[in-house]
Amino acid sequence: MRMMKNNRNETIVVIGIDHGYGNMKTATRCFPSGVARYDKEPIFQNNLLVYNGMYYQIGEEHKEFCAEKTQDEDYYVLTLAAIARELDGKGMNRAKVHIAAGLPLTWVATQKEDFQKYLLQNECVDFTFRNKEYHVEFAGADIYPQGFAAAFYRLQDFKGINMLVDIGNGTMNIMYINNSRPLEKKCFTEKYGTHQCVLAVRESLLKELGTVVDDLVIEQVVLCQEFGHI
């Protein structure tokens, strides 16, 4: 999260958000991309978000794979939760926010405009997360190719033929960088990621040892992978 000033000298909070299929990530937070919706206030409220008269438990399991992240309201609600977590880390509950988000490499061209409109569907929003009220005004949203940010400021270091690979929970993005130049025609998005690898490991353990790995153990492994701890 960074602060900047606009041309009216207003403070804008820039928040980068990775809308993953397995986990939502910001600069300092990571949580499962799961949403459970309730018409009435649920009993357990550890990660409860209240928005537009509805109740949402954030982090309940993982969201199913969907090629269009705008097909329902889940990723919008998850975006609010991600913003709230970042603001809370700075002791804030009101801000004018500019979102920096990403899409799989080969989907950016066709989905960028729709995803931007999706994230900016409201000029401002009031909601409650973890019993704390938030007021957020949206200053804008930029959509980037996933993974490319890792190489953008070091392109001059990529001499010869290189391959940039971003392995997520639901997709794997591959980009060729030849002599510091990204090759748009050699970008690929595969529907294969950590989730599929975990399923293969689970199946192997069941076959070899007759052991079923608990979902909580798998979730911890995936969270460590997302943060680069393993």
Describe this structure in words.
By secondary structure, the protein is of the alpha+beta class. It has three domains: 2-145, ATPase, nucleotide binding domain (Nucleotidyltransferase, domain 5), CATH 3.30.420.40; 149-190, no CATH class; 194-226, no CATH class. It contains five helices and 13 strands. Strands 1, 2, 3, 4, 5, 6, 7, 8, 9 and 10 form a ten-stranded mixed β-sheet that branches. The model has no long low-confidence stretch (mean pLDDT 86).
Question: What keywords describe this structure?
Answer:
Nucleotidyltransferase, domain 5; alpha+beta; 5 helices; single chain; 13 strands; 230 residues; 3 domains; three-stranded antiparallel β-sheet; ten-stranded mixed β-sheet; 37% strand
